[in-house]
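Please produce the structure of this protein holding guanosine-5'-diphosphate.
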Amino acid sequence: MIGELGKRLRNSIRSFASKGRVNEKELSELVRELQRVLISSDVNVKLVSELSKRIKKRSLNDKPLPGLTVKEHVLRVVYDELVALVGYGVEIPLKNDIKLAVLGLFGSGKTTTSAKLGYWLKKKGVKPILVSLDKDRPAAYDQLKQLGEKMGLIAEREVTTSPFIVDTAGRDALSDEMLKEASKIINKLKPDHVFLVIPAEMGHEAGKQALALKKLITSVIITRMDGSAKGGGALAACANAGVPIAFIGIGERVEDLELFDPKRYTSRLLGWGDIKGLLEKAEEVKTEVGMLDFNNLNMVSFYKQMEALTKMGPFEKVLQMVGLTDLDKKTTGDMKSKLKNYKSIIDSMTLPERLDPDIINSSRIERIAKGSGTSSQSVRSLLKEFNMMKKMVKRMSKGKFKGMKGMKGMKGMKGMKGMNLKALKGMKF
Ligand SMILES: Nc1nc2c(ncn2[C@@H]2O[C@H](COP(=O)(O)OP(=O)(O)O)[C@@H](O)[C@H]2O)c(=O)[nH]1
Ligand SMILES: [Mg+2]
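Below is the modeled complex.
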C-alpha cells in the first residue's frame, strides 16, 4: 500500500543494519537516504531537515534502551521520529446519535469517504443516514444513494434525524464562499466531528488546506493513500499544521478506510516484518540486570527485569528482598508460573511489539498466544499488567513513592547492582 517510498526506506535501513559497527559516517548516510525518500514523498524540506537533525542528535546522545544494540537504538530513534513526523490520530468515540460532516474540494473523495464512514459506523453497530447536501450536482445524491444501498444505509437530501453523515458540496479552491458555506452547515447541524477530506496527491500542500480550515474542522481524512507517493508529505503537513488525522483512505471500496494510527503506519512503512529477524538476531537476552528506564519502559526492559528476577535465585527470596514478605506459598507459586508464562509470551513478540506494545491489536494477540502456547487471555492480562506498571513507573518517576530505599538484606547481594528495587516493589506479576 505504501509502495515505493516504503521500499526505498526499507532498503536503506537494511543496508544500514547490515554494516559493521555504527559510526557517524554511517548514520549520516542513513539520514541522507531518509531525506531523499521523504523529499520524494513530498514532505516539506524544512520538516525533513529538522527531522534529520533530531535523528542524528538523538542517535548520538540518547542513552540506548537496555538490551538494544547501537544499531537497534538508531533504528528505534528513526522509528520514533517518523511516528512523530507523520502526525497524530484522534479518537472518534462512538455514540448512537453521532453526527459527522465531511468537507473538501471537488474530487477530493468526500462522497466516497462519507459512504466509507457509514460502513465504518455500521460495522460498529451504529446505522447512520447518509445526507447529501451537494445541491450543485444532482448526481452527487445518486452516487451516495448507490453506495448506501449496497450496505443497507439510507440516503437523504436533508438531515432528518441522527445519527447522520453529511456529504457537502465541493469547491474548486479554498474560498471565503466555501468557508462561509461550511460554517453555516456546521452552525446549523452541530456535528460531533467535521472532517476535511484531502487527497494524498496534494502532498505538502495539504498543510495549507488544513490551516485554512483549522478553526472549522476537528480533523482531516487523507484519501487515495493507496494511489499516491505523496501521502507521507500530506500527513506530515497536516501534523505540522497542528491538525489531527482521523482516517486514511486506502482504496475505492467502502471497506478501504482505516483509523489513522501513526505507529502502525510507520511500522508498515519500515517493513518491520522484514527487518524483524535481523533486529532480533542482533541481541536477545543478556544476562546482566537491566535498569528500568523510566522514560522508556517497554517490553524489552520489562523482560530484562523478569529475566533478572528469575535468575536471582530462589524466587521466594527475591520477593522477600523486594519487600513482599507477606505472601503465602500459593501466591508465590502463582506469581512464579505467571512469570514463566509472561516470558514465553514476550518471547513470541516481535521487536517492534516489544518496543511499543501499543501496536499489539487483537490479531497480533492471537498470533502471540499461538506462538507462545498460551491463550489470548494470558496475553491480554500481560498487556494489562504491563500498562499498569507503566502508569506506576510514571508516577514514581514524578517523585511519589519516595522513601522506599533502605530495604533490608539488599546490600552485597550479587547481581543486584543497577537493579531498580523501587520499581520492583510495586510490580504485580
Ligand atoms: N484509490 C482510491 N480512490 C479513492 C479513494 N477515495 C476516493 N477515491 C476516488 O476518488 C474519486 C473522487 O471521489 P468522490 O468521492 O466522488 O469525490 P468528491 O467529489 O469529493 O465527492 C472517485 O473516483 C473515488 O473512487 C481512496 O482512498 N483510494
Ligand atoms: Mg461528491
